[in-house]
Design brief:
Blueprint lengths: L3 H14 L17 H8 L22 H15 L5 H9 L4 H6 L2 H15 L5 H14 L27 H4 L23 E4 L18 E11 L2 H4 L9 E9 H4 L10 E7 L3 E3 H9 L4
Antiparallel strand pairs: 1-2, 1-5, 2-3, 3-4
Helix pairs in contact: 3-6, 4-6
């Protein structure tokens, strides 16, 4: 964009894409916010399951070359100890804001996460990155047009002094989550146990879907031991591994007005901290404790 008209058109598009609650003014006074609206504002962008939306057609689309390249870059960054998988998910899937999260291609968000983490961890400067983007754009002016995409690095860096996490060393030969095996202690819940998903505040990042919080399900399997996503995403060195469970729910109890088969089930992985015995839940309810 270069003209005032083009800039105005671009900003109008941004305004149309903004996620907003039109019944409230921008930056409302505290007494205008109730609990429900505060919950809605704090809801993590990536947790969209169950939200009203238009139906879409599932297409088994093949990945494009740039998507394959992006995936490889992200894997290499993990292998080299630059970030953890949950750290990448948080940066790529949550810290963008809802409009960008829903509006960009899946691997487009991953690619933005690469740029952000390299800049935030001082592996590259934004000025250098911007200049390189202009250079590559000029190299492929008019599109690929039969050209082959080639990497043309400016130099080969010395990686011996690069700050890295410990995980890429601890997991060598084991992988994730096998690296945490035997570190979580005895599992609290056994297969078949009835459990209720706790309604914990979900600040910034979580992998526990909103639509199962508060619901009662059954332990279908013990999955593995690992750090909870809420801790692993910030690369906490003191994060305590815990058990993850495959929890099974009756779909009719999850979705209001569900019209499917009464035997339909849903299974999802949930860390131990998010679960409590359903018998305890019923006991508390009888005492009037929410």
């Amino acid at each position: 964009m270069s003209t005032a008209q083009e800039r105005a058109a671009a900003l109008e598009l941004v305004a149309r894409l903004k996620s907003s609650y039109p019944e409230l003014p921008n930056a409302p006074a505290p007494d205008q916010l109730d609990h429900d609206r505060l919950w809605a504002y704090l809801k993590t962008d990536h947790d969209v399951g169950g939200e009203p939306d238009a139906p879409i057609t599932y297409e088994n689309k093949q990945y494009e070359l740039w998507e394959h390249h992006t995936y490889v870059i992200c894997e290499v960054l993990a292998w080299r100890g630059i970030w953890l998988s949950e750290e990448r998910r948080r940066i790529g899937n949550v810290d963008l804001g809802r409009a960008m999260y829903l509006g960009l291609p899946y691997y487009g968000r991953w690619l933005l996460a690469v740029a952000r983490v390299l800049a935030e961890k001082h592996h590259i400067g934004l000025t250098e990155l911007s200049e390189r983007m202009v250079e590559v754009t000029a190299r492929y002016k008019g599109g690929l047009a039969g050209k082959t995409m080639t990497a043309e690095p400016k130099f080969e860096g010395d990686g011996t002094q690069v700050a890295r996490n410990r995980h890429h060393l601890e997991a060598v030969g084991k992988g994730d989550p096998q690296v945490f095996a035997g570190r979580a202690g005895e599992a609290r819940f056994a297969v078949g146990a009835a459990v209720r998903v706790r309604e914990l505040p979900a600040l910034f990042y979580t992998r526990t879907p909103e639509y199962v919080r508060g619901a009662v399900g059954r332990i279908a399997a013990l999955a593995y031991e690992s750090s909870a996503p809420e801790d692993e995403t910030w690369d906490r060195p003191d994060a305590q591994p815990e058990w993850f469970y495959v929890v099974e729910f009756d779909l009719a109890t999850l979705w209001h007005g569900y019209t499917g088969n009464s035997a339909d089930l849903l299974r999802t992985e949930i860390p131990e901290r998010w679960l409590e015995p359903s018998a305890q839940t019923e006991h508390l309810a009888q005492k009037g404790i929410p």
